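User: Assemble these into one structure.

Assistant: Restating your components, then the assembled model:
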Amino acid sequence: MSDKRIEILDIAEGLIKTRGYNAFSYKDISEPLKIKNAAVHYHFPKKSDLGEAIILRSREKLKKYNKEWRKYTSKKRLSNFIALYEKNQSLNLVCIVGALGSSYDSLPDNMQNSLTEMSNEIRIWIVEMLSEGIANKEFDFSEKPEEKADLIIASLLSSLILDKVTRDNIFKSVKAAILKGL
Amino acid sequence: MSDKRIEILDIAEGLIKTRGYNAFSYKDISEPLKIKNAAVHYHFPKKSDLGEAIILRSREKLKKYNKEWRKYTSKKRLSNFIALYEKNQSLNLVCIVGALGSSYDSLPDNMQNSLTEMSNEIRIWIVEMLSEGIANKEFDFSEKPEEKADLIIASLLSSLILDKVTRDNIFKSVKAAILKGL
DNA sequence: TTGTATACTTACTTACCAGTAAGTATATTT
DNA sequence: AAATATACTTACTGGTAAGTAAGTATACAA
């Protein structure tokens, strides 16, 4: 991947995570990079191509982490997963699923499909993490792993949204509540 | 409030809850009502007026429920609160805070402010509900009411988003997990 | 050295969107 | 009966957005 392509993806991802898919234009990307709007179209002919590329890049990153973290305990893996959201929070960003999911019906088909696949990949991953933690007695909770996973993912996702809206630190208390419940 | 004004608010609220604030136009409202786009501008001169009116109407509704439900037990009140989300879920809608909050930085100032006030009103309300439930032994949990309230609000909010994205029933398991944790 | 791929710029089209000014129909008030 | 308020329509402006066609500069390869 060329440098410019990566720079475009980085800027667009930031815009999606603060303003959403429908509130940015190619001008918002081309201006800070000091190129023309048509240059962005050269790399990503349609806006939906750019949107899909951002989702795919995120899915690749998660796949990479999934592999890398296999050597760690379940506890450590979950803690690392929470740290991914903490990173967004420190930059005042919403996560991709939250940013795009809330306007799901307005998204082009290719983005809807890739986003759906992404969120299901995350769910499977976390269920696996929790099930293993229960099996080797690192975790102790009464809910079904699927139920627990959904609760964790859901609360992390929206704590980022609520952090912006309430102008308070919801993430902190949600993180504490999640760890207490394991 | 006139009939048309209410009809406009209803349609716009549905559009926000499925597509987000930046993905609908006055044409999307005027067409189904069989009026001209300028007629919508007559009722709400600027789009941000319409956006703010939708938030304000929601806040009024919540204030009304807050009053009406005072006669009920804490358990019943919380159950009613969850039912508000269940209503959205059954219509495949995201809640207002989720729909607007995820693109917070793109919203006009008046909407940002009203949305922030709304979410803080909800937090105060739920903390009150939980604190009373603890005091009269209807509830039994170890977290601080503030922490618990944030977890409940956060998980409800994003279960609606994740329902759309995963095309599964996250809300159901999140609701179960919340009730189990009280 | 000629060709070809890459990474753009220039210049444009088409379309839509928010917003407005001016006029019209109808009902209500004075 | 005249004046006024309400709820629009008609007709328009200015701006911006997505997307494209054609041309240019550079590097590297045949």
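Residues 109-135 of chain B form the longest helix (27 residues).
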